[in-house]
Amino acid sequence: MKATVICILFCFLTAGCSNKNIVVMSYNIHTGKGIDGKLDLDRIASVILREKPDIVGLNEIESYVDRSQCTNQIEYIAKKTNMYFAFGPNLIGNANCGNCTTGLFGNAVLSKHKISKVVNHKLYREDKEETRGCLETEIEIDGQKFTFLTTHLDCNRKEDIRNNQANDILKIIDEKDMPVIFASDMNAYIRTDGNDVENAAKIFTENLFDAANTNPELKNIGTLIKGKRIDFIFVNQPLADSVVSYKVVNYGDAKFASDHYPVVAEIKK
User: Fold this and answer.
1) What average pLDDT does range 254-262 have in this prediction?
2) Which residues are CB-contacts of 24 (< 8 A; sequence separation ≥ 6)?
3) Fewer Cβ in 10 A, N or C end of the chain?
4) What is the pLDDT of residues 76-99, one digit of tens each?
């Protein structure tokens, strides 16, 4: 009896219980610049620490760019949150940061668990449009392997670009023989009244499970601070019945830290 009590206590103290759900976050951090114009990565880290996610997909993150004080942003946030990280830069430009002459901008993944695979897939683009990518990682949690993807689709008003990029990502997901979690800023919206769905959003909602379906009252709350819902967490069929909750984090530091609110989903293992 005593041994059982000790085991349970140890499990509680170390957060090692095998039945703990997986908490996932999608967060466009706007390079750490808040709606108050203040550049503050500590606020971003504070939001993440408060929600205690196992995995985070980050968008609009950069390294060695003078406008963000030449900081390696993903390394900084990873240290603050004590998480592993992967970075998928899609834009590479000149930097004015001392010995570093190359600035990087793209997507990133944070994980409490080791990341065993990293692939940055380039997505469809047209001439003069920004290069966009989908960052693929493989993460193992308690013996179960997951593919975790994050992306930030084209922001141009040409919807066909986003549609092509969405189809590129579906092909990546369709090739997987394991559970897939996909976090994204799609720049394609579902209006807060739910009556208007752009095609790129529909491509995913018709082929994947939208975590927001678990909380109809929150499903159409805007994630862009201006009101539109453009940030999503999807899962593929093996996890469709495993999403237990969804929320928009529009409180605390998240009210100001970026021009987006993060979204969080909880998934049964």
Assistant:
1) 96
2) 53, 54, 55, 56, 57, 148, 181, 183, 211, 233, 264, 265, 266, 267
3) N
4) 999 999 999 999 988 766 666 666
Which domains are delineated in the chain?
Answer: 21-267 (3.60.10.10)
Report DSSP letters for the chain, one per residue: -HHHHHHHHHHHHHT--TTPPEEEEEEE-GGGB-TTS-B-HHHHHHHHHHH--SEEEEEEEEES-GGGTT-BHHHHHHHHHT-EEEEEEEEEEEEEETTEEEEEEEEEEEESS-EEEEEEEE----TTSPP-EEEEEEEEETTEEEEEEEEE---SS-HHHHHHHHHHHHHHHHT-SS-EEEEEEEEEEE-TTS--B-HHHHHHHTTSEEGGGG-TTTTT--SBTTS-EEEEEEE-GGGTTTEEEEEE--SGGGGTSSSB--EEEEE--
Q: How many residues are given for the chain? A: 269
Mean pLDDT of the chain: 85
Distance between CA atoms of residues 35 and 260, nearest Å: 9
pTM comes to: 0.87
pLDDT at 186: 85
